[in-house]
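Lab meeting minutes (informal)
Scribe: AK
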Amino acid sequence: MRIVFFGTGPFAIPACQWICQSEHVVQAVVTRPILDSGKRRKTSENPVRDLAESLGLAVMSPTDVNSPTTVRQLSELEPDLFFVCDYGQILSRECLAAARLGGINLHGSLLPKYRGAAPVNWAIYHGETETGVTVIHMSAKLDAGPCLAVDKTTVVADETAAELEPRLAQLGVRPVAKAIEMLHQWDGQSPLGVPQDAKRASKAPRLKKQSGLIDWRESAEQIFNQIRAFQPWPGSFTQWQGQNREPVRVILHQVAPVESTGGPPGIVLAADNDQLTVQTGQGGIQILSLQPAGKRKMDGAAFVRGYQPQVGDLFKNP
C-alpha cells in the first residue's frame, strides 16, 4: 500500500522503521516544523525528521496540516493510508479523506482510557498496573475511532514514564502491522474494528510545568506515582525550608513509600546519613535522590551531609 506517515516524537520511531522496511511504499513523511528557539539542544527535537532524511524520504512540515493547501498536496499523492503516531496535530475529517482508507493511529494506552497527549504519564500517575498500546481507525474526534489492534503489558512497580514509553513504542510495532493488514484486506464497507465505549473514556491532557508541583497532603503512594509519571518532564518539585535558612527549590527524582510515625504533611521525620524521610498525608516518603536548584542530582544521604536538614524542617509548595 501507499502510506503517508505523520509523526514527530520518539514514540513513533519503531513503527516508522518497520513500515519503511516492509513491502509498503512510504510516499512522504509529514512532521511538525522545527521552531528555532536559539537554544542549543543535546537531543533532536524531531527524531522522525532525522530518520526520514537519513532514508531519503520526502518530508513535509506544514504549520497547519488541515489547511486547504496541505490537504490538496496530500490528495495529489493518492495515498491508500495515513499512519499517525506522536505527531502533534489533530487531522480534520477533510484531511483524513485525502487517503483512500483514511488513517490509523498508534496510541500509548488501552483506549478508551487516557485519550489525549500524555497517556503514558497519566497511566502511571493514576497507579495503573497494566497498560498497553492501541491502534485505531481514525475519526475527527480525538482518539475516538474503533480499535483495530491492542497489545498489553504490565507496568513494573517502580517504572518511570521515561522507561515505560520506549517499551510501549516497541510494543506497538506488532499491532501496527496487524492493523495495516486489516486495512489492506478491508472491503471498505464491512464494520471495522471494535467501537470504543465512550462511557469508559478518561483524559490524558498535555502536561504543564505546574503539573509537577508536589502536594504533600497527598498519600505517599500518590506522590511516588507522580514522581515516576512526570519524568523526564516536567519533573516533580517542591521547596525545602530549613530553620533560619532561605527556601531551596528541589526536584525529587526517586523516592520510596515507607511507614511513618505521623505529623503534619511535609515535615521532615528523619535526616541522617542513612535516610531523609518526609511525612505525607498518609504514610512517609524516603527521598532517595533529588536535585537542588542549580546543582547536580544527588542521593538523599549527600543532601543530608551537604545541606544539613533537621527533623522538623518542612518540604512545602513554593
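Next up, CB showed the second protein from the same session:
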Amino acid sequence: MLPRSFQYFAPGSVEDAVRFLGEHRGEAKVVAGGMSLIPLMKLRLASPSYVVDINGIRGLGDVAESQDRRSLVLGALTRHHTVETSPLVKRRAPLLAEAAGMIGDPQVRNMGTIGGALAHSDPSGDLGAVMLALRGSVTAAGRGGEREIPIDSFLVDTFTTALEEDELVTRVAVPASAGGTEGGAYLKLERKVGDFATVGVAVQLRIEGGLCTYAGVGLTAVGPKSLRAGRAEALLVGKRVTKEAILEASAAAAAECSPSDDPLRGSASYKREMVGVFARRALELAAGRAKG
C-alpha cells in the first residue's frame, strides 16, 4: 500500500520543529530514521497530515561525555550503527553498544536512531529494556523549554510515551560505566536473526568488595511496555552474586513479567519460562564481566 497524502516539513532547528508541532498538535509526526513511522504509514496504520523531518537539524547526532564525565549523552539522531561501533560508547556504556548491534538488520541499524526507537515505545524494541537497566533518561524539547524525563516515567504504555504533542526527543543520557567493577549483558530470544525479540533481558551490575552495589534488570517483549524487574534488582543489591542469588533473581524476573499468548512467538507461559532462562544467563554474564 501507499501512504495517504501528507505535507512535508524539514525544520532547520529544534525551535522551528517545536513551533510547527505546536501549531499542528495531533496532526504531525516526527520522522528521524523512519524505520517505524514509514512502514506504519505505508500500511495506513498511521496517517499524519504533516511529517516533520528532523534530519536536517545540526547537533542531534553528537555523542559525548557530560562535563562531569558521569554520563554519556547521545543526540536523538544517533544511528544504531554509531551506537554499536563508537569507541566512546563501547568504553563508557558497553551494554548500550552491545544491544544496538542486535537491532534488526544492517539497513535498520544504519538508518534507525536511538531517539526515534525510544519515542516509538515498542515493547518489543531492544533499547527500552537497556535504558531501564542503566537508569537512563530522555530529554525532550517543547515550547516551554527542555525537560529531562527518567526512562521509567518516559515509557508509559504500548507506543505511548510521556512526550507532549509539541515535544520531540533531543538527546538521551545514561550513567557512564565505572569500568572494571561494572558489567552488563543483553540477551534475547528471536525466531531468526533480525526478528523482534520473543524475550529479551538487559542486565547491568556493579560489584564492589564482593558485594553487588547496583543492579539494573530490564525486560523486552513481555509486557505492554519495556519492564523493570524491580524485585529481581532488590534481591541482588547488598549481596554476593552467587549461583543461588542469580537463580532467585531470575525467578523473580520471570514472576514480574506479564507476557501474552502469541501465535507467532509462543504462549505466555513459554515466554515467562524463557525470561527466567535468559535472566539467569544475562546475570551470569554481567557478573563475570563486572569481576573482570
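CB comment: The domain at 7-53 is CATH 3.30.43.10 (Uridine Diphospho-n-acetylenolpyruvylglucosamine Reductase; domain 2).
No objections, moving on.
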